[in-house]
Amino acid sequence: MARLLKPFEYFEPRTVEEAVQLLSKYGHQAKVLAGGTDLLISMKKRKITPQYVVYIKSIPELDYIHYSQQAGLKIGALATHTAIADSAIIKDKFELLASACGKVGTPQVRNMGTIGGNICEGGPSQDSVPSLLVLEAKLKLISLHGERIVPIDEFFIAPFKTALQEAELLTEIQIPTPPPRSAGCYKWFTKITTVDESLAGVAVLMLLDSTDGICRDLKIGLCSVAPTPIRARRAEQVLRDKKIDNSLIERAARVAVEETSPRSRADYRKRMTGVLVREAISETWQKIRQLHLRERA
Amino acid sequence: MKQIANFIVNGKACELAIEPHMLLVEVLRDELGLTGTKQSCGIGHCGACTVLIDGIPTLSCLTPALTARGKNITTIEGLAEGTRLHPIQKAFIDYGAIQCGYCTPGMILSAKALLDRNPNPSREQVKQALSGNLCRCTGYVKIVDAVLAAAESMGKEASE
Hints:
Chain A is α+β, with helices and mostly antiparallel strands. Chain A is built from eleven helices and 14 strands.
């Protein structure tokens, strides 16, 4: 593999408008550079050889984490994994996202890499995505023609192919506040490699009625076990509006396994999906019960 | 086309003209002669190329140099004061935490970033902070010991 980059022309826009103008002008010959932890590897491997590189970390207003009960969580596309994993508000209210971002790559990769880049890379194993799927995040995409909001479960089309158009820029991730008495978690199992890429990742978000122990809502997001990150919607149905018990969790895990379609190491990934879904639901269930107990005390 | 870049490297301002495709590791090593920064895997896995940009451990092999314009860059050459080694460097020698030495600059810079923000880390926190730096010689035990010892000696120094 080449260690060096091929020459390109380099731009440092100061505003979103300037950036989308450049993207619109140079089309498929241009690439957006943020943290660089995915793009530069592809460039070194000569998988991508852009003629124009548009560096967007020069746009300060895209790096933020804002929260209000009413508006929910808004994360600028340039927030790094470290910033998200360390954010007090995200750790408190969106813990599954903090733990997913804390799992990405290595400390250096988390310092450099951005959540926007993780999403736009569009690979099957992007760790931030299962949590964003179950939190029903929306993505704000801006182009010269204006902005559009795309629900994240409509964003991933095929491996490394997303709904993001050539001249569009992802600027913000919008996440509604989960209902009270809900809890979630992100569980993963990794390949044993230098960066511990996920072999399977499972996010769960659950809403439980404290009076009757009935699961009012459950969402399951998976990565690394299908061509794109997916929701395991049939498995969610197994538990929704039911009183949770271990055999039902077991059944949901089996259904989730059927919903996967791994591109490689299929048998292993499927088995691990079953284990992780079971663990994630059980752990979330415990968390909610503790939450209820604390509320009563 | 070359562009002008200003950096502060190890406390010294420098200005040079660089091509956009040049990586920070190339500029540091080939233009500024700071060969303490190592390149190994080239794809951000091993951490040998780690430098501090505004105090934050960053992979110089995945950083186009122009993106670091205006920033404060610390390389391993910036730690010692003359012949007086930084306490982390000294601890690495005292504890046998250096064998082939290739991972050492990155390892020490990751350790420095940790101790700068958390002067009294637990063993687990040290392991976490160094988890993006691979060593194929030491088995890590001596490295972790060295960082903990450095934290202790820096704490003593500070209270004296």
